[in-house]
What does this fold into?
Amino acid sequence: MGLVSVAELRSVVTSALTDVQLQTVLDREEQEMIARTGPHGDGLDGLTVLLCGGAGTTLYLPRSMTSISSVAVRQALTDIAQSLAATAYALNGSARLERIGGLSWETFVTIVGIPADLHRRKSVLIELVRQALEQTALKSESVAGEYSWSAPEWERQRADLYRRLTFMSI
It folds into this structure.
């Protein structure tokens, strides 16, 4: 089952499309969201994120997390990952992971955590579907004496919506 049902969507979006047609649009937008920002998560099971560490003591997670269940580090992708004790790192805020003791992060850091943005993802998905349904070739058109038109910036609007889902802009 998807993140948003057709019934939930219909409660906030008006459309003349049938349920099957609306589900097709919803599925397409949801798959694009997952491709761009990763799986939704269910608020219970952890999602795995691989980050590039480096010289600093701070890592910024691509998504907000309610908790971190494990952190493993390695210098090269071919190395065996070494798990860190929970006392070796701290989640500050919801998207910043700090290395305790002034140590720098290794080159590769694998984090398993519970994403905190399920409600926000639903909201953004609904807006993406709304935009897909409203998208036209023209933003406005006028025929008062002379013909003029302007085109919307659909991709910028989509980028703004996706930016709401990530800590670092995409």
